[in-house]
Amino acid sequence: MESLIAAVREQEEAARFLAWPGDFDLGRGDHVEEVHLASGAVLEGFAGDGAGGTYFFCGEGGEERPILYADSEGGAALIAVGLPELMRLLLVAPWWRDCQAFTDEESRELEAEYLEDMPDLAARRDRAAASLGLGLPGQAEVLARLREVATRLAEDSVLIFTPEGHPYEPLFAPRDVPQAQAAVRPR
């Protein structure tokens, strides 16, 4: 199976869509500060966004590994399990960071704002997905999976600011996060 990272680099249409509105750049894999996983698992930055956030692979392996996103303000969350799942999230709901309730309604409102500036958003998204060989689920399905990954699978992906030993804050409201994780100290 071909590397999806290589495919993104080779497919100009996909790379452009992922750069904007996806705000995903494979040329930005370094994080703004020294971090590690509380579990001690491997943490590998592989992409970033325009505001200093970083996408990390967690653990050993290839593109099938869990993916953690950390912003430059001390927030982090596991957001996908494997690169295909991340690509689907970025293609279907590039505004995912603002979907705090994980609802289709919330996502549709955000989509409407994007469509004002980019009326051909759906066509560009569909061409990008096709160039990567990815089928796309609906927004509700993508957001339900984000919710599941970010709030239930996050126990092994607590990101620590290494110099001070403090955990990053959850990117999403801790309403479904286990109590031990909800008690994150501010940095």
Could you give a short description of this structure?
With 187 residues, the chain is an alpha+beta fold.
Please give the order of strands in the largest beta sheet.
Answer: 2-3-4-5-8
Would you tell me the overall average pLDDT?
Answer: 90
The arrangement of helices and strands along the chain is: HHEEEEEHHHHEEEH
Low-confidence stretches: 175-187
Structural class: alpha+beta
**How widely separated are the two ends?**
41 Å
| Proportion of helical residues | 25-40%
Explain this structure to me?
The chain is an alpha+beta fold. It is 37% helix and 18% strand. It has a five-stranded mixed sheet. A three-stranded antiparallel sheet has the order 1-6-7, with no helix packed on it. The protein starts with a helix and ends in a 5-residue tail after the last helix. The C terminus is likely disordered.
Keywords:
187 residues, alpha+beta, five-stranded mixed sheet, three-stranded antiparallel sheet, 8 strands, 37% helix, 18% strand, globular, disordered C terminus
Task: Outline the secondary-structure elements.
Blueprint: H1 4-10, H2 12-19, E1 35-37, E2 43-48, E3 54-58, E4 66-70, E5 75-81, H3 83-92, H4 104-117, H5 121-132, H6 139-152, E6 159-161, E7 166-167, E8 169-170, H7 179-182
Parallel strand pairs: 5-8
Antiparallel strand pairs: 1-6, 2-3, 3-4, 4-5, 6-7
